[in-house]
Amino acid sequence: MLGPWGNIKLGSPDEEPDLSYAGYLVMIFTAGLSSGGLEYWGPVEPLVHYQTAPPFFGSNVGTWAGMTNALQYAIFHYGTSAWSVYLVFGIAVSYFAYRKDMPFRPAVILAPFVGTDNVDGWLGKTVDTLAVVVSVSGITISFGLGVNQFLAGLSYNWGVHVGTLGEVLFILLITVVFLLSVTAGIQEGIQRFANLNVIVLLVLMAVALVFGPMSFLLNVGTQAIKGYMTDFVGMSLYFTPAATSWYGSWTVFFWAWWLTFAPMVGVFMARISRGRTLRQLVFAGMLGSFALTVPWYVATGGSALWLQTTGQADLLGVYSEVGLAGVSFALFDQLLPFANLFSAILLLLVLSFLITTLDSATFSFSMIANKGEPSPSTLNRITWGIVLAALTIALSLAGGISVLRSFTVLAGIPAAGLCLIALVGMIIQLERHAPVLLEETDDMDDKMISSVRSRLPNRITEQQPTDD
């Protein structure tokens, strides 16, 4: 981001961005954060980690360290690891779409290895198909979690219980709404829901901070962020066979989920990045989005820990009786005045997350199915929306999220392979554009440089801006 690669313009030198930078940041943030994400896990995940300490920290249940470590691990699961995975695809598709005039397809990650003219063969089609399959699994989980949380909120706050038929009808209603949005286009439809999403998120976050234990939140939040920065490498690499079940339920699941999202989010990132530089893309996807994620976890997760440890609310009891989806509503019910009002606003947040997630997913799948066309047909968008709704209904009738969670972990394996190909390929391609890793210095032997360069695909040559 700080080197010469960050200056690469996505488009012609005088290309103007389609969106303001604030709008661009909002769109990337809402595309990358799935429904069933922040609003679902924010309050409950730190509580669960506090109750059963993550193996990395050992047994510190019931202590101050246990609280900060619990919040730290929740931030870790939704932190820079997820966004860096998205950016691997986002950078690759953006570069080849705007610098090499290639379509918006995951298959472009093959270009550094097979050339830009050979991506349309069977290998490219295989990559596109695999990318869609793994992304659909992740999106379907998000759709299911969002529906589950919305209905749990109706039940917890107002005693409204719907059966299987009601759940199916709600899925169909959401489908109609997000199809109206996605067919209206990026600026007229998708961006408006994305803006609503962030506004509601900021309102609820501010209210939680104001009415919550401010000094406690600042203290535990600061310690958690500090721990995240110092322990990041250790948490990323630590594993013990004795904790296989814990990692499978948390870190492995989350990382597999992010990996399945990467092709879809990467294609959408590329679609809205015209006129930006790679530095702006990385900043929006990494630092900008992370800066919105952390305060939400501190405000909601920290408040949940405070209510639980001070005995003012038994949120873990709600978790045991109602499940994950009900904890957010129990938190706002106990923490805030006018509980029903803010619970209704939380329902609006769940809805807006659902719609923006499905908007970006449907648009991305439509582009891929339409051979990378940046403005896929309305029929194509509607078709993909119906496919996602049908899969979510089938999931609901089959018995819930657990089956698809297992499939998503498996789907994360080929998704990781695609991300690795994209990462290596982009390092090669960017090195061709502006040599950094193999930049000649006085203490490097010419023969050494030539030897290393000759081993890279399509031998790296001197930068020629007029040709690139």
From TrEMBL:
- Name where it's found: Cell membrane
For membrane topology, the record states: Multi-pass membrane protein
The main location class comes to membrane
* Zinc-finger listed as a keyword: no
Keyword Transmembrane helix (UniProt): yes
Entry's InterPro entries? BCCT_CS, BCCT_transptr
The record ties this protein, via Pfam families, to: BCCT
Name of this chain's protein: BCCT family glycine betaine transporter BetL
Report the gene name.
betL
